[in-house]
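A quick aside before the break. I want you to see a complete sequence-to-structure record at least once, exactly as it would be stored in a machine-readable document. Don't worry about memorizing anything.
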Amino acid sequence: MLAEKVGKYELVERLASGSMGTVYSAHDPFTNRLVAIKVAHPQHAEHTTNARKFRKLFFNEAHAAGMLDHPNILQVFDADMDGDCCYLVMELVEDGDTLEPYCSPDRLLSVPEVVGIVYKTAKALDYAHRQGVIHRDIKPGNILLTQDRDVKLADFSVAMITRADAMQTQFIGVLGSPLYMSPEQFNEEAITGQSDIFSLGTVMYQLLTGSHPFQAESLFAINQKISSAEPRPLGEFRSDLPQELSYTLGRMLKKNPSERYASGLDLAADLAVIFEDLDAVADEDGLREKFATIKSLGFFKGFSDADIWELIRACAWQTYSPGQSIIREGDMDHSFYIVLSGVVIIEKEGSVVNVLQEGDCFGEMGYLSRARRIASAIARTDVSLMKVNDSTIDRAAEDTQLRFHRAFVRTLIERLTDATSLLSQLRRV
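That is the input. The structure line, written in tokens, reads:
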């Protein structure tokens, strides 16, 4: 120990040491509680340019984290100097650990645990981003796992504060841990919250596989991999991972920030669906079965797996019992429907004009024209449908929306061609 006390805090036990300082447990006599205190290494007290830069970096953590109050972000209570000694006072996580040990192939956590950890971290990042704080150093060593398996996001020392009322000069340049940087971070381009999402994707990949997706021997090689190389598919490491997890991770690791999740909240929403599915693998409405159902339908011919997962996330899924109305004649309904299973009858003025089965679709004119429905759709058997409208399809990625609308137009053309052919036959009769 450097001393028995730092400021008013009585040092109790050395907990860990890193490049910036040593962390101790300490007693706060004012609140009568144990806290963690990070004490900067003595060399950083020197009156040099590098030491002054270090001290600014050291106290940046207090400034950034002090703006945040979230259950999954490690609290910073105090920051000061005792003589030449810089120190930070933080929430103490007793008997906790970082995620580093669980990135090893022989110590992997269960899939639900990994999903839960990334879900909580995504929510914490979403909160931080909305407060104008971008972490910029998401890595296993900065995510703490408490004894009761809760998550604490730590170390905001290189965080960027984007709030307009931020008074201090921001750190610029390549900051963070190279192996966990986003392409734009490595290449000194504009940084947004989506950079943190990329870094979190790298952590998630390690937690699931025990392997780093961009490991290389030099900074140049790491940059090349992060900027242009695709990581090995998860299926090459293990066969027990649901496909939707591969899709979610792939979207987190997109090279172009605009193709990643727009926010931590969007990511958390997808992870919540995956988590529920992991707890209900046998459920007939499970995501895998939805995927298999859609994949087999002609409407989705040419759609990639990623497109299908996008639609599963974006669109509404509905079930109907025999005799139940789906659309009533005269209704204002602006949705387009695809029959996933069962039989649907189309009635006009009480007469059956069409019978639809798995893979058929209906409602395209109402979807296009926003006019009142000119016919009714009724479930003849138990029916499962995909319901699409503007508000649902807008949730999907732009490429998926484009592919969907192309398929929609193709279906509409086929429907009009069939109608023209039928009219021609009737004229000949």
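Two observations worth writing down. The chain has three domains: 5-90, 97-278, 287-428. The CA atoms of residues 3 and 128 lie 35 Å apart. We'll return to this after the break.
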